[in-house]
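ugh finaly. both done.
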Amino acid sequence: MISARVSTLATLRKALVRLETTRSPEAGRVRLGHDEADMVLQGGLACAALHEVFAEGRFSATATGFVASVARRIADHRAILWIRQDFAARQAGDLAMTGFAELGLDPRRIVVVFAKNAEMALRIAADGVACRGVGVVVAEIWGETKAFDLVASRKLTLACSESGVTCLMLRLAATPRASTAETRWVVSAAPSPSVAEWEAWGEPVFNVQLVRNRHGSTGQWIMKWVCDECIFSESAIRQSPAHSQSLVASFTDRPDQTFAYARRQAG
């Protein structure tokens, strides 16, 4: 069993080396729309690759919105396969199709699949990435898990490169570990600029940190998602950080129980 695992790991390492030496850093990228971020990414986010997005549990909705927006940029009008663990809907709520529509995504092109644990979620992600008709695979995994290790990330990276499908790993209430991800992001909420009362709320604004970039430098930006144009841009909050408009309050009813339950169910 051990020798077979070592052999598999060696094979994956060789294949990954070939992939990294033959891929052009400029090929197959999608612009996010934020000039500084796209410049650091050497033209945009790499397609046919694995990317990780991390967030604290209280920013789960924020990270979900960010990943949905990125998925919209990459998938365009193709299908998005979104994989969740069973308990995620019970503890954090269902994915709101009306909310996705407001972000500019077509709910008819979003396929949501539930998995009983992280291992099954990763297996479904691998199957989804192998389907060339899918635009983006989103694997939402809560808490710490041993299932997503270096070997698992290598398999997903190779599968992405072979099929041309992009995989976004949405890691909530988790700590980053070694992986073969092309990029790694940490996302939290930022206040939206003030708007007229009839507009109800402003466009989504994210505090985004690029903490890993395999082919370039890193950075941190305040990025606004322009829903009508389905593109990121700079936010006015960069020049005017103080706004009197209130923000949505953090969860106060049962955070400890919720995240403890998530950690127990994650792996």
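ok and the 2nd:
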Amino acid sequence: MKILITGGTTFVSKFTAEYFVCKNNEVFVLNRGSKPQIYGVHLIKCDRHNLDKQLNGKYFDVILDITAYNENDVESLLNSGVAFKDYIFISSSAVYPETNTQPFCENQTCGYNSVWKDYGSNKLKAEQYLQKYCPNAYILRPPYLYGMYNNLYREAFVFDCAMADRPFYLPQQGNMTLQFFNVADLCRFMEILIEKHPENKIFNVGNKEVVTVKEWVTLCYQAVGKIPQFVNVDKSVSQREYFCFYDYEYTLDVSRQYQLMSDVISLEKGLQKEFLWYKENPDSISNRKSYITFIDEQLKK
């Protein structure tokens, strides 16, 4: 296939570019060229808001839009003069209001989420614009994505604690639940959509099983070969000062995805692979939060 990927240099878009190159596709990436490119891609060097006719008249079998965060991002691409057969947009579970009944399912009303704020609202506006002008496009709503090339200080934070033999400071009793999806499974599912063209256009994606925060931390420590010692932190302390997730739990109904792809990567195996990559690439984090400093200065007794 001839594929256009927006981005191609950071986490999800980077992994996606490499994944489809390795499957012998002709992969074009659209970015500003300010970071190293994946081997084997064709770079279209420009900003998606200033395309300067670089896509005008070009055809792709599929556009994988991974870096659109608002309506303008989608509009600029659709109005660029580019032609395509399929379009897949990576949206977010943040489009569901936290007041919806859980698990969130695709036919629920979407709207403002007070935890994700503008991020979720802007993703929803991007979805709505895409549905209006490209009704056959596919929209994917993942929970927390993880895996190789992750530049967010989430798993890496726990890996750092484990490698330093630090006790882990856990929000309350660690019972808050999380849902994950590996970037490799995201790419596999996009392949399935391109091949099968299912009637449904919107899919929640993710592992069906949820885990508690305590279970997730334990799996991260196990990936390092360690067993965590936990210190419980009272609710009076702002969770985001010392921990990498908001105090917010939700679950997605991923039954539509499982009808097409049920053999997902287990969280245990996915974390093991991510740690092996992170150990060789410790400088990959784009914004290393000061959780450990806060813990040492404010929580240690």
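summary for the 2nd one i guess: The domain at 155-179+208-249+265-299 is CATH 3.90.25.10 (UDP-galactose 4-epimerase; domain 1).
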